[in-house]
Design goal:
The structure holds two protein chains of two kinds.
Chain A (H helix, E strand, L loop, with lengths): L2 H4 L1 E2 L4 E4 L4 E4 L2 H11 L4 H12 L3 H17 L4
Antiparallel strand pairs in A: 1-2, 2-3
Helix pairs in contact in A: 2-3, 3-4
Chain B lengths: L4 E6 L10 H10 L5 E7 L15 E4 L7 H14 L4 E3 L6 H6 L1 H6 L9 H4 L7 H7 L7 E4 L5 H8 L3 E5 L4 E4 L2 H15 L3 E5 L4 E10 L4 E12 L5 E7 L2 H14 L2 E11 L2 E8 L7 H5 L4 H9 L15 E3 L10 H8 L4
Parallel strand pairs in B: 1-2, 1-4, 2-3
Antiparallel strand pairs in B: 5-8, 6-7, 6-8, 9-10, 9-12, 10-11, 11-14, 12-13
The chains are: A alpha+beta, B alpha+beta.
Chain lengths: 78, 346
Amino acid sequence: MSRLSKLAVNAEGFVFDPDFGDVFTVNPTGLSILDGMRNNKPAGVIAEELKQKYGVTLDEVEKDIFDFNSQLRLHRLT
Amino acid sequence: MKNECIVGISGINAVDNPGPGVGLARALRDDRQLNVKIVGLAYDAMEPGIYLDWLIDKSFILPYPSSGKDAFIQRLAYIKQSYGLDFIFPSLDSELPLYAGYCGEIEKLGIRLFVPEPEQLRLRDKERLPETAKKIGIDSPGTKVVRSYLELPGAIKQTGLPVMVKGAMCSAFKAHTGKEAADFFSKIVSQWGYPVILQEVVKGDEMNVVGVGDGQGGLIGQVGIKKMWITSLGKIWTGVTVKNRPMLRAAETFVREYRWKGPFELECIVDGDTVYLIEINPRFPAWSYFAAGVGVNLPANTVRRAFGLPYAGNNDYEAGKLYIRYTYETITGLDAFQDITIKGEN
């Protein structure tokens, strides 16, 4: 089971890692990306969904997803 | 439990560096089916547990273990005879060699114990830590045992700076310079004597496991936690339950490999997939009530096991439960203080 799938995530963006006891908060965009990743959606699908949801360009959401992924790697969650 | 069971608990010094006793008493009280009376075994009239009469029914002053086993055992015999004493949880490092070494003599008084064998107790020696860590499949920080002041500079050269300077049984300080290390070294030697242990500083999260081994290779239960906030003395103030599999697996292996009997605490630093063993404590830690609070009542289950009573086999707990220590005051008359000072019991 990946660390990402073990995370306890609530609707307000509070995230708890049961293996390491770390606590994170994510904003609504981050929560949408995290939900998508935890549901094994391809990055392209997550980007398209975000684009529709927030009415922004594909370039912008791709940058957000890239930044979010960097944060996950920094915290060794992926 | 049909008949009353009188349980003695030491370490009722609920102070800034708290002993485990008051938490153990709370855990035992939480098991409503256990018909227990609790006896506080104190070494000083000022130990707060003596005055917490909603948790501890009666307290006695014991002679220090360093005064010899005869005086100590005579005192236990007196308590057994005058008030009753069926079981003891020794909770302090300094008294464990005595309880482990003279377990047979104490049990002949009709007082049961659930403590490690003297050989098992030696596993806590910090100089044996690397060997133990290897046997249970985890890592340990680089460790040097220093037996004289002359050896200190060479040892620092090998471990590097910063370095943890530790007494063989108690005390640990982080030194950032050679001068600081020398000062801590002298402080530890004057208080605890030789050897002094130098331990490489490793990075990661401070996580601990509390558990109880049944003496046959099985676990009576275990709970893993992460320290979120500590005091200036390094004691936990806020923590959270975790299910870090490599650390919990190491605790299971520890109990199986050494057929550990009794309570234990493994202090670890966890850095990703690497778990470092920092210390083994052969007793309950001061935060043991945390385990009872999340449904794994280790003290009550230990008493149950010792008396052949059934106990919960399912020791699962939820990750993400918080532990918050807080301060509290109690006000009482002078009577209890007078009694414990003059008669050695209240």
